[in-house]
Request: fold
Amino acid sequence: MKQKAETGGEVVNRMQVKLPALSVNEGMARAMVAAFVSQADPNVTELADIKCAVSEAVTNCIVHGYRDSTGYIILTVSILSGRVIKIEVKDKGCGIPDVKQARQPLFTTDAAGERSGMGFTVMESFTDRLRVTSKVGKGTTVTMYRRLSDRGRF
Ligand SMILES: Nc1ncnc2c1ncn2[C@@H]1O[C@H](COP(=O)(O)OP(=O)(O)OP(=O)(O)O)[C@@H](O)[C@H]1O
Ligand SMILES: [Mg+2]
Reply:
């Protein structure tokens, strides 16, 4: 039963955008998700958490997925019955050789010392469920679910 509460039911509304993997689009993605999710009446904390999780996932596509290339990020956000927000962030970049290792707190492949290796940990703590699927040379898809507190809608 817990699983169902986390992952929601049928799609109530959905948005999808395809953005070039440019760092300016990280802010765009945050703003678009916030605007879309607002119709489900999230509280301030929920909205901030969702924006932060999206920001980490989109940044990863830009700095890691397409580190040696250019490409697109496909962002899909669904409002599911049960007041669950489902967010999918997909790139067709380099992929992750070992997802389990990549998800460990403090793990980073950044050699420049600018990154802390905490992005997946942030995504995990700000959502109810995080799924990462990846194939080297094909790309990465991050799927996150966050259930909103009950405010009498959906
Ligand atoms: N979309 C992606 N494509 C390819 N590799 C990725 C992708 N997302 C994450 N990774 C790999 O997983 C590692 C861990 O990601 P995570 O977001 O936790 O930390 P980080 O990005 O290195 O640092 P931080 O997010 O704290 O700035 C990255 O260093 C990178 O090697
Ligand atoms: Mg990161």
Remarks:
- The chain has a mean pLDDT of 94.
- The domain at 2-147 is CATH 3.30.565.10 (Heat Shock Protein 90).
- Residues 53 and 122 are 7 Å apart (CA to CA).
- Strands lie at 11-20, 72-80, 84-91, 129-135, 139-147.
